[in-house]
Design brief:
149 residues; globular; mainly alpha; single chain
């Protein structure tokens, strides 16, 4: 994506967020420690993106798009969001979960962070980055963490 397209897309998301700020229902959540501000910001961006998607793809008015975006997820979807692998959870998933189960969304966020930390500690992201760069007999990823050519 070019920088111009990215800037244009960001402006559209910002405009959608500004237009819908007065239409979004206020939901009181218990304050939590840590990175709640950053989490809220990412979820708000995902929410604005969903509104933009409804407006563009379904040609809905802003008010109808907000109404559709604020619908509570069905119970089956909520269960999927709570049990799917942490690596497949999106900002939109967390935002949707927070509307019906705020504590569950915060718990899920902690699980996502924990899984990311464990993945980083394991070295797998570094190994994936090196795939194709390490040449050894038999090809593929080396089982040794200290591979030298």
């Amino acid at each position: 994506m070019t920088q111009t397209r990215l800037c244009r897309r960001l402006r559209r998301v910002e405009n959608a967020a500004c237009q819908t700020a007065g239409l979004i229902p206020v939901v009181e959540h218990a304050p939590a420690a840590g990175d709640v501000g950053a989490l809220a910001s990412e979820m708000a961006t995902a929410f604005a993106g969903m509104i933009e998607c409804y407006r563009d793809a379904y040609q809905l008015s802003t008010q109808d798009a907000v109404a559709r975006a604020t619908e509570l997820p069905p119970e089956a979807e909520r269960q999927r969001l709570l049990t799917c692998p942490p690596g497949s959870v999106t900002w939109h998933d967390l935002e949707a979960l927070s509307r019906s189960y705020p504590e569950g969304a915060l718990q899920r966020w902690e699980e996502v962070k924990h899984a990311a930390l464990e993945e980083r500690r394991s070295g797998h992201p570094a190994a994936r980055a090196l795939e194709g760069q390490v040449v050894r007999a038999g090809g593929g990823r080396s089982s040794s963490p200290c591979v030298r050519n």
